[in-house]
Amino acid sequence: MPLNVGMKALVYHGPKDIRCDDVANPDPASTDGAVVRITHAGICGSDLHIYEGHGWAEPGFTTGHEAVGEIVETGSGVRRFRSGDRVLVSGAAACATCLPCGQGRIDLCTSGGASVFGIGLGLSGSQSEAIGVPAADRTLAAIPEGMTEEQALMLTDNLPTGWFGARRADIQPGATVAVIGLGPVGQHAVESALVQGAARVLALDPVAERRTAAAAVGAEPIEIDEHTSARVAEATGGRGVDAVIEAVGRLDAIRLALEVAGPGATISIVGVPESADLSVPAVLLQARNQTLRLSLCPVQSTWPALVPLVVSGRLHPERVITTRLTLDRGSEAYARFHDRREGILKVVLHP
Ligand SMILES: NC(=O)c1ccc[n+]([C@@H]2O[C@H](COP(=O)([O-])OP(=O)(O)OC[C@H]3O[C@@H](n4cnc5c(N)ncnc54)[C@H](O)[C@@H]3O)[C@@H](O)[C@H]2O)c1
Ligand SMILES: [Zn+2]
Ligand SMILES: [Zn+2]
User: Fold this and answer.
1) Is residue 2 part of a domain?
2) Residues 166 and 151 placed together within one structural domain of the fold
3) DSSP H or E segment with residue 314
4) Residues 19 and 32 in one domain
5) Of all atoms in ligand 1, which is nearest to the CA of residue 252?
6) Over 236-274, what HEC string results?
7) Residue 192 sits in the same domain as residue 324
8) This prediction's pTM
């Protein structure tokens, strides 16, 4: 069924001001692109940085980069999909033709690089009734039998990021891992670390119910206060952990990640740093032969591992979803997710 003329989408108007507005439909699909009618859209912790006013673009753009829906139109060059297919849309797109993009490594794209949906820099947002998707053969994935739409939504950004953060933490079988920040990304990092071979995962967050959610999948919860480092030291016989995944982006959380890391540890940062400058204790890192990595997740590259892990029930990404609201309640959804009120962990919007 074609789209109606005119639609609703969430639009960034300024700090703490995201509203559901009338906007124009997406342009007709480009040769390699598709138009997707959205049924499920997530709000990511990265959207909260925009909401707080730390975005990169002037107000007036549509927001969101997590979407699941149905294809309503494809360009003549699209090979793998057609109208009516149920798909998940990666949070970012690049070309569909270069060698790295063919392997999902859109971060290494050799013809123009990757762009994220809904941050005001090119691609429009998916907290919307419909979206135009470039390079559809690589930006979309079919929702396989045995996967729910809510599971598929978690494969557009949050689970891939937790998984990639864990992969970049060099987790060895039997390792003790700390995950700092237990929003959706951190929760997925906890499960990913366990699936990747960690024996123990210490789960650190100031919000009690988020620690409880991590404990429910096998992590050891640790509060955030002035004694946190001492608690991690005690829990690891004074050594510190073998690997850290940081999923907050605040400088105090990054500092904590460096503090709890043991000798030889890898510290993998996926939280988007709140400041462009990061000062690190370089001599200490060197003396302890530690590795520090910052990563932006190439979502598509994680699907070959994650789709079977979700379908087989080894990972349960949908467990983070606590709240389902219609798109026209987008302002309220942002405010509640931002304030971490009422046990909210992940919001799904339904256009
Ligand atoms: N690198 C990537 O590719 C990528 C992709 C998606 C999201 N992100 C980033 O990952 C981060 C997490 O995303 P999310 O959706 O889980 O967001 P979120 O806001 O739901 O989660 C952040 C968590 O950090 C906790 N926290 C706050 N201060 C803390 C502190 N000092 N120490 C420990 N925990 C603290 C909060 O209580 C919250 O649970 C964000 O910075 C987001 O921008 C990065
Ligand atoms: Zn995101
Ligand atoms: Zn490319």
Assistant:
1) no
2) no
3) none
4) yes
5) 31
6) CCCCCEEEEEECCCCHHHHHHHHHHEEEEEEEEECCCCC
7) no
8) 0.98
Residues 257 and 244: beta-carbon distance below 8 Å: yes
Q: Note the pLDDT of residue 193.
A: 98
Q: Which amino acid is at 113?
A: G
Atom 13, ligand 1: residue with shortest CA distance = 45
Q: What is the pLDDT of residues 230-274, one digit of tens each?
A: 999 999 999 999 999 999 999 999 999 999 999 999 999 999 999
Please tell me if the CB atom of residue 344 comes closer than 6 angstroms to any atom of ligand 1.
no
Residues lining ion ligand 3 (Cβ < 5 A) are 94-95, 98, 101, 109
Domain assignment of residue 89, given as a range:
7-157+298-350
Task: Give the domain CATH number at 166.
Answer: 3.40.50.720
CATH number of the domain that 329 lies in?
A: 3.90.180.10
Of 248, 256, 275, 341, the one to substitute when testing ligand 1's pocket (max ligand atoms within 8 A of C-beta) is 248
**Are 136 and 28 contained in the same domain?**
yes
